């Protein structure tokens, strides 16, 4: 409604309450002609007389009194709206959607999410478990705001910030005979393998590490979660290869061994390079950056860790960014965040 703006409504309320254009002008820090113009513009816009001017005396008309009552309510709503926007501007309110691998959700995120919920309870966090490839696509399509993924990823649309560099380790049933001090691709290829589902980023790293032994003489078992993989290894069903962050606690009946050559497994934060920023997004981003072990610039075409093996080109059919898309979202234990659910079956 052009003309029915808050400044004109405030001028009308001041004139009616104070009974004087000059007094209203002093209260509003305006000139008397400016206040008179505000009232005339309102009357012209609405087509009714709002006040009657009789010399120095002002009397509000019936339409004017009705508008004053509405104006007070309108201005209260305006003040409420401005206060709400200040909370958004300050990063205290908002909605941020995070896509994350299952291992990051279970082993890395809980303390970060707890602090966010405690310090910023009015920021709505939407957490969706998805493989790295899906997080990349959803960031590019602006379906999610931030992604926690396993490197490598390579897309010019992405801003990639490495957070925590680790390594893959073999976990082997303790009852296995002649367990070596380090696990080589040749040794692993001769064992019954329990691996991440083929959609996962770690599965791609493992297959590239095993590339000279492909095709495997034994068909691996593929699990949808690292917890399932660890459980089967503990039961003696085979060996597995997992990120070191997932085996920080001792595992019953399981022996942990490093890989030779080693394989880096790096957690990274991704977002669209041209994503419009807002305060709540900045608050959540800063919280996730607490996972970073050391500041580093990242070139998505080169490993950022000197101990990383120079992997051979991806074997056809095993690239983690070229496989069918399926998602899952086991609920984060102990989390009160709002969780976006995806189809079961994907781990990273």
| CATH fold assignment of the largest domain | D-Maltodextrin-Binding Protein, domain 2
Count of domains: 3
Tell me the structural class: alpha/beta
**Helix coverage percent of residues?**
25-40%
Give me the count of strands. Answer: 12
Calculate the mean pLDDT score and round it.
82
- CATH architecture annotation name of the largest domain: 3-Layer(aba) Sandwich
Name the overall outline.
Answer: rod-shaped
Order of helices and strands: HHHEEHEHHEHEEHEHEHEEEHE
What are the defining features of this structure?
single chain; about 350 residues; alpha/beta; Arc Repressor Mutant, subunit A; D-Maltodextrin-Binding Protein, domain 2; two-stranded antiparallel ribbon; 11 helices
Offer a quick outline of the entry.
This protein is α/β, with parallel strands linked by helices and 348 residues long.
Description:
By secondary structure, the protein is an alpha/beta fold. It folds into 3 domains: 6-89, Winged helix-like DNA-binding domain superfamily/Winged helix DNA-binding domain (Arc Repressor Mutant, subunit A), CATH 1.10.10; 94-162 and 267-302 and 325-340, D-Maltodextrin-Binding Protein, domain 2 (3-Layer(aba) Sandwich); 165-258, Periplasmic binding protein-like II (D-Maltodextrin-Binding Protein, domain 2, 3-Layer(aba) Sandwich). It contains 11 helices and 12 strands. Strands 3, 4, 5, 6, 9, 10, 11 and 12 form an 8-stranded mixed beta sheet that branches. A two-stranded antiparallel sheet has the order 1-2. Strands 7-8 form a two-stranded parallel sheet. α1 crosses α2. The chain is rod-shaped. The relative contact order is 0.17.
């Amino acid at each position: 409604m052009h003309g029915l703006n808050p400044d004109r409504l405030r001028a009308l309320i001041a004139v009616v309450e104070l009974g004087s254009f000059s007094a209203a002008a002093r209260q509003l820090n305006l000139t008397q002609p400016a206040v008179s113009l505000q009232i005339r513009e309102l009357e012209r816009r609405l087509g009714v007389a709002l006040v009657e001017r009789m010399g120095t005396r002002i009397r509000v008309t019936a339409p004017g009194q009705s508008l004053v009552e509405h104006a007070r309510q309108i201005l209260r709503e305006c003040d409420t709206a401005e206060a709400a926007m200040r909370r958004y501007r300050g990063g205290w309110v908002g909605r941020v959607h995070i896509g994350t691998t299952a291992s990051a959700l279970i082993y890395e995120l809980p303390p970060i999410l707890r602090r966010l919920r405690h310090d910023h309870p009015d920021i709505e966090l939407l957490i969706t478990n998805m493989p790295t490839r899906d997080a990349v696509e959803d960031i590019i399509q602006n379906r999610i705001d931030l992604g926690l993924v396993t490197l490598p990823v390579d897309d010019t649309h992405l801003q990639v910030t490495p957070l925590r560099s680790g390594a893959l380790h073999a976990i082997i049933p303790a009852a296995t005979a002649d367990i070596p001090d380090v696990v080589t691709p040749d040794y692993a290829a001769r064992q019954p393998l329990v691996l991440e589902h083929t959609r996962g980023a770690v599965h791609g790293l493992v297959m590239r590490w095993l590339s000279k032994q492909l095709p495997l003489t034994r068909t691996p078992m593929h699990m949808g979660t690292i917890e399932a993989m660890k459980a089967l290894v503990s039961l003696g069903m085979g060996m597995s290869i997992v990120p070191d962050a997932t085996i920080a606690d001792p595992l019953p009946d399981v022996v942990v061994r490093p890989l030779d050559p080693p394989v880096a497994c790096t957690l990274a934060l991704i977002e669209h390079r041209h994503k419009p920023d807002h305060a709540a997004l900045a608050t959540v981003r800063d919280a996730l950056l607490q996972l970073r072990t050391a500041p580093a610039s990242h070139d998505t075409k080169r490993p950022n860790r000197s101990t990383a093996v120079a992997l051979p080109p991806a074997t056809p059919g095993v690239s983690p960014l070229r496989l069918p898309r399926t998602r899952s979202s086991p609920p984060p234990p102990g989390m009160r965040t709002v969780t976006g659910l995806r189809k079961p079956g994907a781990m990273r």
